[in-house]
Amino acid sequence: MVDTKVTLSGIVLDNPVIPASGTFGFGYEFAEIYDINMLGTFSFKGTTKEPRFGNPTPRIAECPSGMINAVGLQNPGVEKVISEELPKLKKCFNKPVMANVSGFAVDEYVYCCEKLDKEEQVGWLEVNVSCPNVHGGGMSFGVSPEAAAQVTKAVKAVTAKPVYIKLSPNVTDIVSIAKACEEAGADGISMINTMLGMRIDLNKKKPIIANKMGGYSGSAIMPVALRMVYQVYEAVKIPIIGMGGITTAEDVIEMMLAGATAVQVGAANLIEPFACKNIIEDLPRVMEKYKINSLKEIIGGAH
Amino acid sequence: MKQSLFTVLTNECIADKVYKMTLSGDISDITATGQFVNIKLDGFYLRRPISVCEAADGVLTIIYKAVGKGTEYMSSLSEGAVLDVLTGLGNGYTIEPSGDRPLLVGGGVGVPPMYGLAKLLRSKGKEVSVILGFNTKTDVFYEEEFKALGCKVFVTTADGSYGKKGFVTDAVGDVGEYTYFYTCGPEPMLKALYNATATGGQFSFEERMGCGFGACMGCSCKTKYGNKRICKDGPVLTKEEIIW
């Protein structure tokens, strides 16, 4: 029997597979087709202080081995997430969930984290300082070590739950930002968010995405994500949740060898609704193939 | 929603760049006309959402236009090809409000879902009128198929090379009295119909989708009843909820 368990800030996960925020809603669409309790956990749809419709459509463009999205943090706002989404989630998911939070000002992050801190089912807060799709917000906090540290400190002050800061790859030096978050008290790092990308419609000769640019995700970005996780692992002591293009059980192992304690699966859920289920069911076979008895023993094993 | 493998039975060109594909597989999750399927194609990242023309006796019929690399690849598939298909997507049309004389309006590749709907309404004894709108004569398809169901069929072409010259809205006056309408087609056509019709109706919308099953919020729109996802809460919206 292989051991797929990993621990994220004191909470044991049955396996390291976590659907990434924005690709799994609040779980129901997937709970209709498989028992989502098999997941390590999942990160719910990015939540902001105010309700948001997000960007105009088209919001989606296909790319080789990936896709661009510019949804723009559509969500019902933290109050409704707590009053409507979480009670529904409780009925189909009995594990701690990762609450993904975004904001346009430090006090908005604080407001959401303070509210979600009181929710029993929330196991971790994942603070997104890296959304590429909202102007003047989100990512602006993730592009400088000082701003990322400022958000980290502010949310740590209002919550007892572990805080993971979700970082953007669209920066010059992700290592310095990760270190700044660690110094500011972050319990872990989630990385990477999508890479800023673009497609142009040859018929219309204009960008496909109404917002012109969007976040590139999918298997194409995995080597970049893997490299960044590898670099950050050497620089910080806090756990890393690795993501970016993970599609198979082999990808999970590769990302953990680079230094991830757990992984998130994003775009793969959208083209293959059973992606996480398939990966989890395939993990024991792949672990045996590569003579791995325990996943937690391989974290950072490539260093 | 169900994920299953379908086998291509036939794949033939029926109009300029327009293909009709029949596939055998598990159609049990297709519960309403106007739903769509989402097809995985080798070498393409995103699935291709295609409206269901008909689903009966274990055979799924779709009609699509080869307009991009994905649909061009689809057009090259032949008998025996196996495709990974998500079925049972979208809400589909509701036939209860149709009345005795429903009007169905399809534009271009918006015509196919009208066929399954027409067949269903005819089986309920409804007097069905159909307006089929195309750009030009070589685009026209399924006129005879609708006639064979016993529908009253009106065809328009934008350049007047076949049927009545003009848009579908130019034929609405020829239909006579109708009790309700159903439509699918390009958004400018839907908007024109919205203004050219007197009764209630249902509109099927198109949008670039990520997942096709409600997870990614890629195809959201605003309605009078709140934000909706074209793929999950649509693609069919009722006239009274639409905000243009």
Describe the structure.
- The complex is a heterodimer of chains A (303) and B (244).
- Chain A has 303 residues and is of the alpha/beta class.
- Chain A has one domain: Alpha-Beta Barrel (TIM Barrel).
- In chain A, 32% of the residues lie in helices and 18% in strands.
- Chain A is built from nine helices and 15 strands.
- In chain A, strand 8, helix 5 (174-183) and strand 9 form a beta-alpha-beta unit.
- In chain A, helix 5 packs across helix 6 (222-235) and helix 7 crosses helix 9.
- With 244 residues, chain B is α/β, with parallel strands linked by helices.
- The mean pLDDT of chain B is 97.
- The A-B interface holds A 22-25, 29-30, 32-33, 45, 53-54, 57-67, 69, 71, 74, 208, 218, 267, 269-274 and B 1, 3, 40, 44-47, 70, 86, 207-211, 213-222, 227, 232.
Describe the structure concisely:
Chain A is of the alpha/beta class and 303 residues long. Chain A has helices at residues 28-31, 78-92, 106-117, 145-156, 174-183, 222-235, 249-258, 267-271, 275-289; strands at 6-8, 11-13, 17-19, 60-63, 66-69, 97-101, 122-128, 163-166, 188-191, 195-197, 200-201, 206-207, 214-217, 240-243, 262-265.
Which features would summarize this protein structure in a list?
heterodimer, A: alpha/beta, TIM Barrel, seven-stranded parallel beta sheet, four-stranded antiparallel beta sheet, 15 strands, 32% helix, 18% strand, globular, B: alpha/beta, Rossmann fold, seven-stranded mixed beta sheet, six-stranded antiparallel beta barrel, 5 helices, 16% helix
